[in-house]
């Protein structure tokens, strides 16, 4: 009725320059938006408005995709880059690694947002990986904002877990996952009602994705001339030292041909645990360990990596214990089994690898030859 009486839908009504169409999106009034879109000026809708009032930002966090679908049919570019604002002033992604502060809508997703709109855009072809070297990969932003659900969703949609940068030593995703995990202690309740401490919330998901772990350990020089984001920096920031041993155990266990300098060990660990990490380091040199890791990862991806499942495999008990990493001791074994088991419940990665009893029997037969 207001429009029939020549009401102007393009008059800003807030300091953020929002017009009527913005409020229709905010209130999720799809019918109102349908009426307003034909008479709303595109500059008012997309260009002359603050980032938080941008239609894409508001529509993606709605509980339904009606407004999002309508805006896309109207020609909205879902690949547009939007500025991050004050967050970029202090975050190492921009201060150290110097990524562009104009980022994908996926980098704006907040913890309290529903992911319905995100899934819809990903299904419609929104890239989940950076398209240029300067563009911030959304996977890194999900780590920076500690958005575990988004991190998991991006991996499911094919986000590349291996991200390298000229100002970082090794895989940046692994470094950020370690940094996040050493700050966080996760307590969960098992199906039997027992409380468990879970470590490596992000790192275990990267393990299941077969991400590059070892590159952040190799060639790490704490006195390097060029300032780089590296493992020394990550571990020096660790305030919750109780998390350090478990997270590094997970990291080292799923590396192959691991080589850790004595200087690095002394810089990070207490003397009493150096021999323990030496044991893991030595084990990673063998082909048997590489085969073990592959089998364990495939089992975990199929949600079959629990002690009871391993004990039920038709293989010698010695090999069952080897798959459970009991050669590292019972404490490390429980850590690996519990952490990977928890991660596998929260991520579903499609795998074409051959899985089943026949596969394990064939593999162990080769080991025994």
TrEMBL record:
Domain SOCS box: 286-329
Gene3D superfamilies xref list: Ankyrin repeat-containing domain, SOCS box
Record-linked InterPro entries: Ankyrin_rpt, Ankyrin_rpt-contain_sf, Cul2-RING_E3_ligase_SR, SOCS_box, SOCS_box-like_dom_sf
GO BP, one annotated term: intracellular signal transduction
CDD domains: SOCS (cd03587)
UniProt cross-references to SUPFAM superfamilies, sorted A to Z: Ankyrin repeat, SOCS box-like
PANTHER family, A to Z: ANKYRIN REPEAT FAMILY PROTEIN
Name of the protein in its database record: SOCS box domain-containing protein
Organism: Magallana gigas
